[in-house]
Write a structure and sequence with these properties.
CATH topology of the largest domain: Glutaredoxin
Number of helices: 7
Strand order of the largest sheet: 2-1-3-4
Order of helices and strands: HHHHEHHEEEH
Structural class: alpha+beta
CATH architecture of the largest domain: 3-Layer(aba) Sandwich
CATH superfamily of the largest domain: Glutaredoxin
Largest sheet: 4 strands, mixed
Number of strands: 4
Distance between the termini: 19 Å
Strand content: 5-15%
Length: 159
């Protein structure tokens, strides 16, 4: 993966340097870089005069933050009760195998996808449910998800 320059100045300025908006700043950092880079946490610590340990506490406490790069198309497989009963765990295993990732949260080598399980997406009647980016796919199967991933791959190649 190519190293990219990290800069949080515009984000800090957006929140007028007010450290009471640290969570919002971390959200902005993650939206920009698809994760919270170590360098960004150090910059926030320095610019806001907030201990680095406090920033890491927040970034590791909330599941919405990740300290590892995510793929451009995050794949979330619901493994809550209804989805589990209808094969969610099997879908997760198959997606991870297809994308050649060894653990949840890991991004593919081309940074196109990352995969993780979620406990509930709140649409149990549509189980099993998978999201790819902001799109929700109801009554999913390994084959259906594979077709979705292939469609995205083809679209990315044509760009």
């Amino acid at each position: 993966m190519e190293a990219q320059a990290i800069n949080v100045d515009a984000i800090v300025d957006r929140w007028q340097g007010d450290n009471s908006y640290l969570i919002e700043m971390l959200q902005d950092v993650q939206e920009r870089y698809r994760y919270v880079p170590r360098q960004a946490t150090q910059m926030l610590s320095d610019e806001l005069d907030v201990p680095l340990s406090h920033i890491f506490h927040i970034a590791t406490f909330y599941k919405g933050f990740t300290l590892e790069p995510r793929g451009r198309h995050p794949v979330c497989v619901c493994t809550g009760t209804a989805c589990h009963v209808k094969g969610g765990a099997r879908i997760l295993e198959n997606v991870m195998r297809e994308l050649d990732v060894s653990r949840e949260g890991e991004a593919t080598g081309d940074m196109l996808f990352s995969v993780e399980s979620v406990r509930c997406l709140g649409c149990c009647g549509l189980a099993p449910v998978v999201t790819v980016g902001d799109e929700v796919y109801a009554r999913s199967s390994s084959m259906k998800v594979s077709k979705i991933l292939n469609k995205i791959r083809k679209a990315e190649q044509s760009e």
